[in-house]
Specification:
The protein is an alpha+beta fold and 321 residues long. It is built from seven helices and twelve strands. It binds dinuclear copper ion (CUA).
Length: 321
């Protein structure tokens, strides 16, 4: 699978919308670049002729003025044609963007929080709704509609490989349509300054085959697995006895709070703390021991835990596939 996490780029369009935007961008660069070179050329020519005229004693003025006005008329014509061409291109790009993902087959609601992403897959049957965080799975070649909301300040949803930016404004419903056309792992970011940890508000976007997506979806529908080994069982006890369960949900347990990310399948995700760290045991332990050291200002408090409790909690979270 193509892995572009960490190198999000508008230059590598992997979705239908991004491809339309990419074409418009190239047209603008070529047309404006050509105009710019023409302006430079005429400027140099004018400077050169000015020097020449100073030397000559008998200018053939009538001929020269006729030539000048012809040049001026062609110049204005070129500018009007260029601007008109770009306006038309922009109009058709807008139309293509609107039509690209007509009739979405997957509906997702993403809510921005300082500083993480809450993701809900909407289904007419409430028992088939999925709630996760910071990792967006999308089936390839399938139109998706994403409703965007914010719980606190203005954020902006941006997956450069798939589409342009869309603001997430508290109290206002925005949406964006996506039509990914290549499988791969892409990076999404928050594109609007939203406070201290704005730069650590990443989203892993995984575009996979429809079969892989369906399998992932079925796994997410399952309750979190029960811990089997003794250390993980102790970790489960730590989670339920300390402040952890006041903010997080783990399906199938009594932890059902929604202030922080849903952790039911946290071990299956690629990263933790909204892309701040890769998801493996050492990083998880470091994060749990002192979240403020990784993301200063994060709303995840430092829960005082002994080394033994930290080991157990890390082991338990590691079982939540
Ligand atoms: Cu959220 Cu910047």
């Amino acid at each position: 699978m193509d892995d572009r996490v960490g190198m999000h780029s508008i230059g590598e369009a992997m979705g239908s919308h991004a491809q339309h935007i990419d074409k418009l961008w190239h047209a603008m660069v070529w047309v404006c670049g050509f105009m710019f070179l023409l302006v430079l050329g005429f400027l140099l020519l004018a400077l050169f002729r000015r020097g020449q005229r100073r030397d000559s004693k008998d200018p053939t003025q009538a001929n020269e003025e006729r030539g000048l006005s012809l040049t001026l008329v062609s110049w204005i014509g070129l500018i009007v044609a260029g601007l008109f061409g770009l306006t038309l291109f922009s109009y058709f790009t807008d139309r293509a963007l609107v039509q690209a993902a007509a009739q979405p087959q997957v509906q997702i609601k993403i809510t921005a929080h300082q500083w993480w992403w809450e993701i809900e897959y909407i289904d007419g049957d409430p028992s088939r709704q999925v709630r996760t965080a910071n990792e967006l799975h999308l089936p390839v070649s399938t139109p998706v509609k994403v409703s965007l909301e914010s719980r606190d300040v203005i954020h902006s949803f941006w997956v450069p490989s798939l589409h342009g930016k869309q603001d997430m404004i508290p109290g206002r419903d925005n949406d964006i349509e996506l039509l990914p056309q290549h499988e791969g792992v892409f990076r999404g970011i928050c594109a609007e300054f939203c406070g201290l940890q704005h730069s650590k508000m990443h989203l892993d976007v995984i575009v996979e085959s429809r079969e892989a997506y369906a399998a992932w979806y079925e796994r997410q529908l399952q309750s979190a697995p029960q811990p089997t080994d003794a250390l993980a069982q102790r970790g489960h006890g730590v989670f339920m006895a300390t402040a952890c369960n006041l903010c997080h949900t783990i399906s199938g347990t009594e932890a059902a709070a929604t202030t922080g990310p849903d952790l039911s399948h946290v071990a299956s995700r690629r990263s933790i703390a909204s892309g701040a760290l890769q998801n493996h045991r050492d990083n998880m332990r470091t994060w749990l021991a002192n979240p403020q050291a990784i993301k200063p200002g994060s709303h995840m408090p430092t829960v005082p835990l002994s080394a033994e409790q930290l080991d157990a909690l890390t082991a338990y979270l590691g079982t939540l596939q």
